[in-house]
Amino acid sequence: MKRTDTRISDFDFLVGRWHVRHRRLKQRLIGCTEWECFGGTSELRLLMNGHGTIDDNVIELPAGTYRAVTLRSYDPASGQWAIWWLDGRDPHRIDAPMRGGFDGDGNGAFYADEDFSGPPIRVRFLWTDITPQSCRWQQAFSIDGGLSWETNWVMDFARAA
Question: pLDDT tens digits for 37-73?
């Protein structure tokens, strides 16, 4: 079946297997500046003729390795993607969806409102620096409705051979 909406190809760059270098703040939203670095892998495949994706993630935290799944779906009516995260450490809980899309320069921005240890926060995912062999994902939290952001997790992807 031929794709008629070019927006559904937004995540085609991520198809395949990747080595991931993680850098994450040890604590969030308290002014921490200490980062921990660890490895991982991710493997993505398309679903629903490109209107969906799923990836299997191995995250090698210093405290122990775990697996997680990212599920994405594209809504042609809104022109937006929704992204859900299912963490293997809490397999009966799926996070609220992040919603957003890619701009004309190929950068993606996705947002959701969540609770983080009590107070409500705004969450942002950014996809940037996308090439056939690499890309970057960043997560940031805001406690002031998006006026300021604390980037707390950065993932640098390198295509696996």
Answer: 999 999 999 999 889 999 999 999 999 999 999 999 9
- How many other CB atoms are found less than 10 A from the CB of residue 44? 21
User: Cβ distance 139 to 128 under 8 Å?
Assistant: no
Domain boundary assignment for the chain: 15-151
Distance CA 52, CA 49 (A): 7
Neighbours of 138 (CB within 10 A): 18
> For the segment 67-123, what is each residue's pLDDT rounded down to a tens digit?
999 999 999 999 999 999 999 999 999 988 999 999 989 999 999 999 887 789 999
Between CA 127 and CA 142 the distance in angstroms is 18
| Cβ atoms < 10 Å from Cβ of 112 | 18
Vertex 41: Cα angle to 112 and 80 (nearest 5): 30
In the numeric block, which tokens belong to residue 145?
């409705």
Contacts with 6 (C-beta within 8 Å, 6 or more apart), sequence order: none
> Taking Cα atoms as reference points, which of 20, 10, 9 lies closest to residue 159?
20
Can you tell me which residue has the tokens 């640098």? 156
- Predicted structure pTM score: 0.92
